[in-house]
Amino acid sequence: MQDLRKIFRYARPYRRDLFAAVGLIFIECIFEMVIPVLMSTLVDDGVPTHNMAVIFRQGGLMILCAVLALITGLLYARYAARFANGFAAELRMAEYAAVQKFDFANLDRFSDASLVTRMTTDVTVMLNAVNAGLRPLVRSPVMLCMGLAMACVLSPRLTIVFL
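Above: the chain's sequence. Below: its structure in token form.
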């Protein structure tokens, strides 16, 4: 755990981007969880009575929610990429500074190509882990909690089955 703290301290300058990305995931989940509720209203109220006003209204709201979820998803990708790339840049600079402090005995043990490859590969692995892991790490618990809350609103007995 201490190693992760040491590594992620290089992400501090990009905390705003991280918080923006997490907030956008949360908003995207809200839009995605509203769509089934709108669909249930459309099927329960609009289809049996052939009420076209309800069908068009609910369909329009579903399209609006889908477009807003798409927009927040794209904005999430932007902020998450900015966070991950900024974190990787800070980490790369710290690695470079650490290599510059090596004495000549250490530099003789490692070839230049080996050091460059290690630095590049290590930073790329961290960049990919942060970039690919942030979305499921945040989205999964949010979708679970919101899904249970929506199930409780629709049918409290069904929520017990889900739990």
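The helical segments are 2-8, 15-46, 52-100, 104-109, 112-154, 156-162.
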